[in-house]
Amino acid sequence: MQTGLVVSLSRPGGNLTGVTQLHVEVMPKRLELAQELVPTATIIAVLINPTNPNAETLSRDLQAAARTLGLEIRVLNASTERDLDAAFAALIQLRADALVIGNDSFFNSRSEQLAALMVRHAIPTIFQTREFAAAGGLVSYGGSIKDSYRQVGIYASRILKGEKPAELPVQQTTKVDLIVNLKTAKALGLTVPPAILARADEVIE
Fold first, then answer.
1. Which listed residue, 87, 172, 175, 196, has the most CB atoms within 10 A of its CB?
2. What superfamily would CATH give domain 22-143+175-204?
3. pLDDT for res 169
4. What is the pLDDT at residue 129?
5. What is the pLDDT of residue 61?
């Protein structure tokens, strides 16, 4: 709605509807996970794409969540390949104990690169996509892509049977996936709390 694609979530209008995932909404939870993984953490860096329409909202929400958790956050911006290298290089100067990566299509398309940078800089990092954890990242936590695809399939069937997209409310998936790469945790010298392992949808060993 913020990008102007639909009039409202309940009645999209025009010829467009669809499915959204929990993105901005789960970012504060990623801060909590970072704190659980690194209990001694006092400063957590957050990587955001400043060109994302939600960047300002995301930064504001994270600042509020950090205050509640007793954490300080340092916002790093990246919207190009060069920015990514510079952002990770800045982590040492910021004395960050962990890194949380914001939701953005630019970051999503570079999950493997982000995982490699995380390993190179040995910084506990949480991101959205499973690809990140599968490529060696520590933890991924975000809206379930499988659940989104399932709902898209249902909508496609309804539209093919004659229903109008304008009258189909935009659906928001409520399921989130938590993936933990235990091998990476061990390499970082982190002990993943049993409570996180118990909640995990998948543990990579």
1. 87
2. Response regulator (3.40.50.2300)
3. 74
4. 87
5. 87
CA distance 165 to 171: 12
Beta strand 139-143 pairing with 176-181: antiparallel
CB atoms within 10 A of CB 15: 9
User: What is d(CA 170, CA 155) in angstroms, rounded to the nearest whole number?
Assistant: 10
Report the pLDDT value the prediction gives residue 34, as an integer from 0 to 100. 95
Candidates 1, 56, 68; CA nearest to 29 is 68
- Cβ pair 31, 74 in contact under 8 A: no
Question: Among candidates 140, 118, 110, which has minimal Cα distance to 45?
Answer: 118
In this structure, what token pair is assigned to residue 41? 């953490």
Angle of CA points 101, 67, 59, to nearest 5° = 40
CB 48 within 8 A of CB 59: yes
3-state secondary structure 79-112: CCHHHHHHHHHCHHHHCCCEEEECCCHHHHCCHH
Confidence (pTM)? 0.79
In the prediction, which pLDDT does 110 show?
Answer: 93
DSSP 191: -
**Tokens coding 202:** 């998948």
Nearest to 101 by CA among 137, 64, 144, 145: 137
Average pLDDT per 10 consecutive residues for the chain, totaling 205 residues? 53 60 74 94 95 88 91 94 93 93 90 94 93 94 67 69 72 80 95 95 94
